[in-house]
Amino acid sequence: MKILILLSSCNGARFLPEQLDSLLAQRARGVEILDRDDGSTDESRAILERYRRDGKLRWYGGENLGPARSFWQLLHDSGDADYYAFCDQDDVWDADKLEIAVSALSGIDPELPALYCGDVRVTDAALRPVSDHMLRDMPTDYSHALVKNIAPGCTFVFNRAAKKLLCRYDAEKLGIELHDWLAFQIISCFGKVVFDPQPHMSYRQHGDNVIGAAASGLQGRLRKLNAFWSGDKRGSRARNAVRLEQAYGDAMAPDARMLTADFAHYREEPRRKRRMLRLKLRLPRADRAAFHFLVRFNRL
Prior knowledge:
CATH topology of the largest domain: Spore Coat Polysaccharide Biosynthesis Protein SpsA, Chain A
Radius of gyration: 19 Å
Largest sheet: 7 strands, mixed
Strand content: 15-25%
Helix content: 40-55%
Number of strands: 11
CATH class of the largest domain: Alpha Beta
Order of helices and strands: EHEHEHEEHEEEHEHHHEEHHHHH
CATH superfamily of the largest domain: Spore Coat Polysaccharide Biosynthesis Protein SpsA, Chain A
Number of helices: 13
Shape: globular
Low-confidence stretches: none
Number of domains: 2
Strand order of the largest sheet: 3-2-1-4-9-6-10
Structural class: alpha/beta
């Protein structure tokens, strides 16, 4: 068995050795590490080269693409394995993280695209706990995936069938905003997603995070709503649905194809908007209200 960890690094020298050591301490058998360095200008490449010389990983450098495109490029460059795991440069994994993930996936038909993901322990830069959990268990079906990501990509482990399916998506041609959310959507549409409510890694939050834990409470909700109303998330769900329709529409089951088209084109067709507003989403009341508000005003 081969488990390939896909790590995208970028100016992460401050925390990279500690993360690499936690990857090398995994109890699962057959673990290998492949890093794509996304244009680092700090000591990251020197660190990677030191680990490479010791036979502990493989790495290659590339131009700065940003995290989403860098991970997608890494996915395409990864070669053959039984399982794949997305990995951020600044976290610390428990020794049993991959062992538990592979155990959860091993009972699933290997021909079915399957994704394991889970909760995390949030810590500060010094790995002092901030929260024992970050997430709540949420549905893993495709309709919910079109609305919200289920977990951070650093918890994602997926099988060979899932990797093959994901590689059909051309990020350079279609564009990509979040690699983990896109992977969740695609696999939930065509395969199976397993969510583990128990954390098996420390999710480090610090001043240099590219993507991190969102603020909670009223302040966090207002910030998110503003991002959808006039910021960078305005229309993001519709844009993403258009991309999924272009990449996978012909292969989708009829219900999934119609749902994708509803998200993609609800602003132009009233009947699609009505169906969107009738969706049975198992979300907190405030999130459901925000969803309806954003659909009505064409901001989703």
